[in-house]
Each structure stands twice: as C-alpha cells, then as structure tokens.
Design a protein that fits this description.
The structure is a homodimer.
Chain A lengths: L32 H4 L5 H15 L46 H22 L12 H6 L12 H13 L9 E2 L8 H13 L10 H18 L7 E5 L2 H16 L3 H4 L7 E6 L5 H8 L7 E4 L9 H13 L3 E8 L11 H11 L2 E6 L23 E4 L12 E5 L4 H6 L32 H34 L5 E3 L10 E5 L2 H4 L4 H22 L3 E7 L2 E7 L8 H15 L3
Parallel strand pairs in A: 1-11, 3-4, 3-5, 5-6, 6-7
Antiparallel strand pairs in A: 2-8, 7-8, 9-10, 10-12, 11-12
Helix pairs in contact in A: 2-3, 3-5, 6-14, 7-14, 8-10, 11-12, 14-17, 16-17
Subcellular location (chains A, B): Cytoplasm, Cytosol; Cytoplasmic vesicle; Golgi apparatus membrane; Presynaptic cell membrane
Family (chains A, B): Belongs to the group II decarboxylase family.
Pfam family, one (chains A, B): Pyridoxal_deC
Chain lengths: 584, 584
C-alpha cells in the first residue's frame, strides 16, 4: 500500500540529525545568584530570568537569546558548568538517551525542562501572576505553530514548545484558582508524579510494578480502615476518575445480584432500577447508559432545600419501582454533592437499602476526604454500612490528577465480576504469590500508576497533615459564608452553613438589587455570573464556577480545595466579583 | 461521631513541624565533577554518587551521610551553592510552597528529587545495571516501612522513600526489558509528562485545559489522516488504555444501531452478537460483560496458524448468529494480536461488515503504530474502512504510559452516545466556542492529560522519527527470527516471518531435545519457560514474557518496542535463555 503522503522526505533521515556537542556556549544559568538571593539559588533565578525573557517576546515565545558569558555557572567564577556545554538548537531527540554518549545531553536537557517547570511553579503560587492568560480557541490556535510535522524539531524548539504550553496553561496551583473540585498543586505529590513518570510502568502485575502494587495494597487497606470496615478488610482499586469508580460500583452491584449477567448479558436479568438524588453526579446516569441499564432506570430522588436526599422519597420510589416490576439493585448516596456540597443521610439510606436488599454505594468522590477529619467526619456517619465507596484523593486532598479509589466491602467480588484469565498476562505458574497480580479485577488492561503520589503525600503529611489541610479549607469556606450571608448584594442559594466547602450564592449588581418585577430580575440575574466569570478570565485574576440548578438561575459555586488559599484570597474574590459586576 | 482511632496524637500539630533553615550544610552535590566528566557534570555525578551510597547500605535505604565540604557547589571553589543551604531532615512538606518563603526549600527539594530521577534514568540505560532487583511480595513488604502513619515524615524520609521505591522498581527503560508491549522510556516523552504533572489539569473543558484540548484536537486529526479518513475528519478521544478504547467502540456500535439503548437499556434491544478472533485481546469480552451484552454474545472466530482471523469463519458465524435470532452489531478485527502479533485481513473483514451492516472496529492497540511506517503500513490495508480504530501510542511508539486513542469515523456520535449535559460543567452560556468542551463525549468526568507527551514527542521526532523507531524495532525482531529459526534447541510457534515484533518460540534445553515420548516432552517443555523467566528475574538480567496458547504449551513471546534495544541485546537474550535453561 502506498504511503498516504504525510511524509515530505523520501528517506529515513531521523538519525542524520545528530548534532555535535559544542565546547562552551552557556546561558549563564544561575548568574548573579549570589547577589540576588540569600543562600544563592541559581536555578531559581535562572528560571525566573527565562520567564522574564519570554515575556519580553511576543505572544508566541521564540528562541531566547543565549548569553555569552561562557564558562560561568552562576557562581560568578569561571568553571565547567554543564549548562554551558550543550547547544539545544543543534540537537535532536535522537541525540538523547539511549543514544551513545547521550548521558550529558539528556541530563542537561531534562534539567533545562525542570528549570522551566520550577519557574512555572514559583510563578503559579505568586499572587502577582495571572491565574490564566486567556485566549479564545481560534486565537490560541494561531498563536503558535501547534501542527505536527514530518520533520523533527530541534531540542531548542521543544523547550520553546514547553514554555508556550505553560504560558497559556491555567495555573491550577494559584491561590486564587477555585474553578473545580480539584485545585492546588502539592509539591510532594508533584515529586511523586515525576517519579511515577520516570518509572513508567503499569499496575496490572506485581512482576512489572512490585512496589506500586504493594503501596496500592497498603493504601487501600488504610482507606478501608478509615471508612470503618473491620481490620480494613475488603477490596478496591484506583481507577481513572470518580465516574469510572461509580461505574465499577454499579457493575459490582449488578453482578452481586445477578452473576449470570457477566456471561448472558442483560437479557438474563429483569429490568433493574437504580436510585440516586436529583443532585447527584451525572456519572451515575452515564454509567447506567454504558452498562446497558439505561438512564430511564436511574430514578432521581428528591433532595431537600440544602441538597440532601430525602429518605422517605427514596423508600417511596423503591416501592413504586417494585410495583412496576423493576428490581431495585443499586442506591448511590452522595457524600458531598458537586454543586451544594450536600451529604445525603447515610444511616437512614442504609436502613432502607438493608430493608429492600439493595446495594448501597456512597459517591464520596468529593466529600469522602472528610473522613480524614475528626471535626467533619460525622457528616459521613453510616458510610461504614455501604457496600462500596468512591473517594477521590485528587479532589479535597489535593493529590495531583488523577487519583480516584473505589473501595468495596466484599472481598473477591471485583475479581469474580471482571476477571477474564488472560493467560498471557496472568500466568498461573509464576514464581510469586499471584494474589498480587491485581490486573484482572480491573476493567482496564494496562492501568496507570496513580498510587504513588497519594502514598508519598500521606507519608509526608501523615494522616494529621491531611486532616489539617482539609479543616483549613472548611474554615475558609465558613469564613466566606459568614462574610457574605448578610452582605448587601448577596443572596445565598440555600439557607444555613454549608456542610462542605461549597458556598453557593448570587451576586446582585446594584442595578438589579431592587428590581420589583421578579421575572425580569431573575432574567437579569441569570446573565450576571457568566459575564463576571468571562471578565475574571479575561483579567486572569481568579476563576470560580457558576451554573444554574433546577429552577434556580445561574449562581456562583465557590469551592475551596486549594491548600494555597488564605482568608485574604477569599476577601479578594469578593472584591473582584463586586469590581467586575458592579456595572451589570 | 468519634474518630476511629487512626490518629495517635490528640491535636493538629502538622504546622508545628516547620523546620528552620540551616546556614550551610551541603552534600557537595557535584563535587569533583570537573575531574570526572569532560565538560563537568555535577548533577549527574552527584546523582550517581547517591546511588553508590545507597547501594552501600542494606536493602532498606537509610539516611545518607551528609558530607562536610561546606561551601562547595561542585565547581571545586567555595561558593553559595543552594544545595548546601537546606537540611531536609529538619524540614516537612509544610515547609514547601505554598508556605511563606517556601520557594528556595521547594526548589531545592524538587531538584533533589530530580537528581534521584536523573541518576535512575542513566542507570536504567546502562546494561551493567540489573533490569530488576527482584524480591517476593512478602520479602519486599518487610524490606522497608511502607505503612502509612498518623505523623508526618521529614523531607529527608521522603527522599529516602523515593530512592527505595526506585531501587525495587523494574527498569522499564532498560535495553533488555522486553516483558510487555510497552517498554522503553523516551526522554522527550518523559519531559512532557513532567510538564503535564506540573500543569495538573483536567481535559473536560477548554476553560481549564486550553492548550491541551487544542493539542488533542490537532493530534487526533493527524492520526485520522494517517488512518486515511478524508481530511482527517471524524472524532476521537484519548482514553485510559486500550481496553477502555475498545469498550468505547463497542458502546458506539451499539448506540449507532439502537440509539434507544441509552435511555432504555438492553431490554429495548434484541440479543446482540459481537465477533472477534480467538486470538483477540481479552478486553473485548470484558467490555461485553460490562456493557450488559454478556461474554457469551462475543463469538470467537477461528484464526489461522499464524494467528489471523479467517474471514470465511467470520461470515459463517455471522450467518449462524442471525439464524439463532441474534443481531450482529460489532466486529473487532485485531491489527497486531497480543501474542502472535498477527494482523487480521482488514479488507476481507470490511467486505463482510459492509455486507451485513455491522460496525467494524480495528483494535490496533499494538499494531496501529505501524501506520507510521511506509514499509509496514500495508499490514493494515483496509483500516480506512473501519468505523473505529484503537491505537495506543504508549506501546509501539514508546510514549510514556498511558496514551491510548480511540478514533471514530462518524462525527458527533460519541457526543450523542455519552453526553449527559451536566450544567455545572458544560454551561451553555460560556464566552467561548463550546465545541472545545470535549468532556461530555467521554465516559469519564475528569480525564487525565495524556496528549502532551505524544504531541511533544511527535514534534521532536517528526513523523519520520517515529517511522525510523518503529522500523528499527521490526528489524530487530527479524534479526531475532532469523537467528533462532534454524538454531539448535529452538522451535518456532508458528511458521514464517512474524508480521509484528512478536517472535514466539520454544527453547528446548538439551535434556528434552530428543525425548521420544511426545506427551512427556510437552509436559517438560511447559515448565521450561516459567523456570527460565523466574531465573531471569532473580538474576535481574533481562525480562521477557511467556504464556501457553490454546493447546500450545508455554512458549516465549519476545516483543520489541524498546528503542534502546540493539542487535547485541537480542544476542544477549538468546545467550541468557541458553545459560539459564541448559540444565532443565
């Protein structure tokens, strides 16, 4: 078959791009460090200088000029600084390891990337820096050459691409980034993620990930202990996000009740019904659609004013479903809803689940981490009665994305539900204890190593460190709530102190504060949050989410999971909303 | 509710652990660099020294002694080297950013981690280093304190944990690591993954991942062009691995034929039948089980001696299924089977799919990358007729794990199939083009950024660079095949030159080479590969996979996707198998 014409060169010349090493053309990477920083810190200074240089250029970062101070490593004395010996504009990826004599070039290249990253990190935590340098998609597409080419780019181009990518990235570590449930950047978590990338392996067998498999075992057990399951017994897995964890739970519930579904499919099973609050996460419906259960079989239970599922309505709807011939098999209670941060009443729900013999799942993707806090874990009372729990350390515990766990009370069920015995991966005559080959209980085959960052952070903080971090975020949200609940121009979306860090409110610009026509006022108010949000992004000063919910027009949903945020950042947010919204 | 007793301290003292900065206690991080390495390379040398130090200690790495050469940064002259100013044994994670004045400590800490990683990388490519320092699970559990504690550990302990983790890790970059379809470590890919971790964001909206969303768009389009879809039109997504990509394909196929399944579930749908080769990946059955289709509805089609699906058998089984009242909806052809590396005849299969109006999926998780090679892409002739294609750049293209794409020919279908319109994430009144909010077409909610490493590697290598890398791996496998096909003591599992880099063979130790009793010989032979593999791991010299298949007893499956491997490494593998197996 003919090639499709996406190569412009006739031959394989990738190996011809091997550049040669130059004797000495440094960029004076840590020059003047001694003068500027106590203790001297070349790498940092240099990185910051790069940023300054980059900012001097146009929107599209271009090659930065190399300085001519050959032989200076930043100690202000002539020496053999490695940074001075490699010219990236002459080098290609083929010059790096595993190339012969690629060691020095590789380490210098990676060090250069690390310098860019270190500068970005320091910048991200700096309140003087923008959270985002926002551009519309079409603009951004034209701001750089993002297209893929037939020909290789030099390592210098690669470094430029790295800088450009970060220039337009959202600074998710920024103390004023509040946009998602996952915010912040933990330094130990980051280090762990760098190590994970370097180890570049796969969770399916002990053979290829011995330490990581053990750490997953240790950590899941600890999480189950914290849930309150006796001796930490049970099962679990780290999955690619809370939606997949919830889908696993639904899959297990179905298999537990109708194991024949694995071989025979849904045609062997009566019509099923799943139940979850009208405020629950959309992944419950997504899961039901994927698993062949269908979204109509997901029955939405009424929530009260503060967003908690009403148990009486759950029971009523279970009975109703049974009368219609459906088999109730799954209740997903939410511990920390996405918008209100509400905790469903787990004890009452578990009583109902027990009465009707239904699998009880707790979607604690957002709120599960409150189990780490002695002050707040009462909000999940009853979680120990659940059959399964989703808990995303990448949200409230600020573990780098992605890190989501599904914990399961019954041992062996996941394996039975999902195993396919692929003999090329899970050989039965291996020379070690095969119970550590956890891959066959997953839906995935290859599985990314998500455990190490959580484990290392836990090690670094201790349980009490996570607790302190979580408690602080909840204090900040209480501060926000107290600050605005009676403030002129604000209305709370629901009454009472929020249970999680979600503070939901309307900001009413002066112009609509006293509008008499309620419908007119509502119509205006609906447009306020999107405009303020767009302005926030254009100024780049902060980011916070908004949405409508039911018959409630667009309101702000402030969430705090960012350990970098302080009381002053909360004050700033309020001032900023007022500044950007006063003319609306 | 009372705490569960997993804290041993009464109060929140995490913040009490703030260590103070010491004036000057360096570890002479790049001492003597000038003497040892031309060009001087302190960081490298230092990192190597750390490894040497670590190896001097017992199996459990402990604190390394700090050297007393205060004021030396490795240039052999007194200076203010930053490495000398931070004592990690006095510091905790709470001293790092966002802590006040955490900049220097953070950068020094991260630099220390990077030094550990750089040393590991250099070691990994060194053939003198073991591929694995293997220990059985129970041993490894006892070799370090892996347990999670209530109290925080010092940053020094964290660095020790990083070293310990890498000490027992599999060196997947090692030129003699052949164990999985994903091997090797690309330096640009690694740099990109470090950047991805640092950017720490989520793919669901343009709002929080503007560059990455655009790069996914650009790259998916390029991949579709390479498949041969006109103007690169179509759709696609990066998913957490080939198994999930295949599950997406099956989900789309079902939705395409029966869109009502999304709301009504499988009870609205006739009994479905899916078809795939008996040599296909187990994820097809896993997906069918999860989606409520059932494994019995996956009909395994016969493969020929070399592992290719037999089209006549496919047609026969489709007709048979129809007769039994099943509705054939999905054929998954494999481009590069896991064990044999066989390519199913796509053109013949596509004719059958067209005739019976069945969705044609190509599972090219392993073999899809051959599309990048002008010499080898004919093996996928017909792929452009597929409705969907799985292609894992983390396998043959050596992109760091995980990086798997599903490409779909029909635009809009993924969105219709999976969207749930969560109004708190996919607000319809945002200020930018909403077609870039790709999250609602995924099964996941949060989605890890897997695109940047592929994009940056593509940039660095160009299409021709990937081509050269792939062609080289295929050359190596041909070399292996030629070397052993007539060599005494070897038997090939199937005749003829392999189409991918999979070389499947038995090694017959002298003792069983001339056994007359065929059953006895088979019984013995079945035990040979597991023993040799166990010995390989104990010596740590190389790793290669083995498995039985059908009635064939355990054989070695050699695969080459590691760009670091050379002809000499192939020679080594053969010598090693003979050395370790001669007494069996």
């Amino acid at each position: 078959m003919a090639a499709h014409g996406f190569w412009s060169l006739g031959g394989d010349n990738a190996s011809a791009n091997t550049g040669s090493q130059s004797p000495s053309t440094p960029r004076a990477w840590c020059q003047a460090a001694a003068q500027k920083l106590p203790g001297g810190f070349g790498s940092k200074l240099c990185a910051l200088l790069n940023v300054a240089e980059m900012e001097k250029t146009a929107d599209v970062p271009t090659k930065k000029p190399l300085e001519n101070s050959a032989g200076s490593c930043g100690c202000n004395k002539p020496c053999n600084c490695p940074k001075g010996t490699v010219i990236f504009s002459d080098l290609y990826s083929t010059d790096l390891l595993p190339a012969m004599d690629g060691d020095t070039k590789t380490m210098t290249f990676l060090q250069e990337v690390v310098d860019i990253l270190l500068a970005y990190i320091v910048e991200s935590f700096d309140r003087e820096t923008k959270v985002v340098d926002f551009h519309y998609p079409n603009e951004l597409l034209q701001m750089n050459n993002w297209e893929l080419q037939d020909e290789p780019a030099t390592l210098d181009d690669i470094l430029i691409s790295c800088r450009a990518t970060l220039k337009y990235a959202i600074k998710t570590a920024h103390p004023r980034y509040f946009n998602q449930l996952s915010t912040g950047l933990d330094m130990v978590g980051l280090a762990a993620d760098w190590l994970t990338s370097t180890a570049n392996t796969n969770m399916f067998t002990y053979e290829v990930a011995p330490v990581f498999v053990l750490l997953e075992y240790v950590t899941l057990k600890k999480m189950r202990e914290i849930i309150g399951w006796s001796d930490g017994r049970g099962d679990g897995i780290f999955s690619p996000g809370g939606a997949i964890s919830n889908m696993y739970a639904m899959l297990l519930a179905r298999f537990k009740m109708f194991p024949e579904v694995k071989e025979k499919g849904m045609s062997s099973v009566p019509r099923l019904a799943a139940f979850t609050s009208e405020h629950s996460h959309f992944s419950i419906k997504k899961g039901a659609a994927a698993l062949g259960i269908g979204t109509e079989s997901v029955i939405c239970i009424k929530a009260d004013e503060s967003g908690k599922l009403i148990p009486a309505d759950l029971e009523r709807r279970i009975l109703e479903a049974k009368q219609k011939g459906f088999v109730p098999f799954f209740v997903s209670a939410t511990a920390g809803t996405t918008v209100y941060g509400a905790f469903d009443p787990l004890i009452a729900i578990s009583d109902i689940c027990k009465k009707y013999n239904v699998w009880m799942h707790v979607d604690g993707a957002w709120g599960g981490s409150l189990l780490m806090s002695r002050r707040h874990r009462w909000k999940l009372d009853g979680v120990e009665r659940a059959n399964s729990v989703t808990w995303n350390p990448h949200k409230m515990m600020s573990v780098p994305l992605q890190c989501s766990a599904l914990l399961v009370r019954e041992e062996g069920l996941m394996q039975n539900c999902n195993q396919m015995h692929a003999c090329y991966l899970f050989q039965q005559d291996k020379h070690y204890d095969l119970s550590y080959d956890t891959g066959d209980k997953a839906l995935q085959c290859g599985r990314h190593v998500d455990i190490f960052k959580l484990w290392l952070m836990w090690r670094a903080k201790g349980t009490i460190g996570f607790e302190a971090q979580i408690d602080k975020c909840l204090e900040l949200s209480e501060y926000l709530y107290n600050k605005i609940k009676d403030r002129e121009g604000y209305e709370m979306v629901f009454d009472g102190k929020p249970q999680h860090t979600n503070v939901c409110f309307w900001y009413l610009p002066p112009g609509i504060r006293y509008m008499e026509d309620k419908e007119e006022r509502k119509k205006h108010l609906h447009k306020v949050a999107p405009v303020i949000k767009a302005r926030m992004m254009e100024y780049g000063t902060t980011m916070v989410s908004y949405q409508p919910q039911g018959d409630k027009v667009n309101f702000f949903r402030m969430v705090i999971s960012n350990p970098a945020a302080t009381f002053e950042d909360i004050d700033f947010l309020i001032e900023e909303i007022e500044r950007l919204g006063q003319d609306l």
